[in-house]
Design goal:
Blueprint (H helix, E strand, L loop, with lengths): L5 E7 L5 H15 L6 E7 L11 H9 L16 H4 L2 E4 L2 H10 L7 E4 L20 H24 L4
Parallel strand pairs: 1-2, 1-3, 3-4
Helix pairs in contact: 1-5, 2-5
The structure holds 4-nitrophenyl phosphate.
Length: about 160
């Protein structure tokens, strides 16, 4: 029986560090569970500086160390029709969340949430921007994305993948 996929969009500022990492991590977790045909997964940014570019080399390297290839992603802006197409939009930080809420068309379909609370770590509410940081910050980004994406996937599974 054909089922409509759950459409999930990860959003950060530049779409070259955090959200492509979250997209790659979530894709890998979904694949591990054999649920590829149940999800459509993408990422986008609220800022336009890096449109069309590959992910930041440091993000690609951190993901590669974890066995995840994000090199083929190309940065794009969040579009108004994303709010109609996607079921869930996950923001990496509070500024991304505020920007998304400000641009959401009235009556938008997508539910917009912060990503990090899905990790269930009360003191960690955001995936901090690693752009001006070090290799270590990119590994920390990956680790946070893993924890949060794992929790997010569990909520979808608990809800019967509806
Ligand atoms: P991201 O990181 O939002 O995780 O992709 C950033 C990338 C680029 C910039 C800021 C954050 N920038 O200012 O160009």
């Amino acid at each position: 029986m054909p089922t409509t996929p759950i459409r999930v969009l990860f959003v950060c500022l530049g779409n070259i560090c955090r959200s492509p990492t979250a997209e790659g991590v979530f894709r890998a977790l979904v694949r591990e569970k054999g649920l590829e045909n149940r999800f459509e997964i993408d990422s986008a940014g609220t800022g336009d500086w890096h449109i069309g570019q590959a992910p930041d080399a440091r993000a690609t390297a951190a993901c590669r160390r974890a066995g995840i290839d994000i090199s083929t992603h190309r940065a794009r802006l969040v579009r108004p029709d994303d709010f109609a197409h996607f079921d869930r939009i996950l923001a990496c930080d509070a500024m991304n969340l505020a920007d998304l809420k400000a641009m959401a068309p009235a009556g938008a379909r997508a539910r917009v949430d912060l990503l990090m609370p899905f990790a269930g770590r009360p003191e960690e509410t955001e995936v901090p921007d690693p752009y001006y940081g070090t290799e270590r910050d990119f590994d920390a980004t990956l680790e946070r994305c893993r924890a949060a994406c794992g929790g997010l996937l569990q909520t979808f599974i608990k809800d019967g993948l509806q």
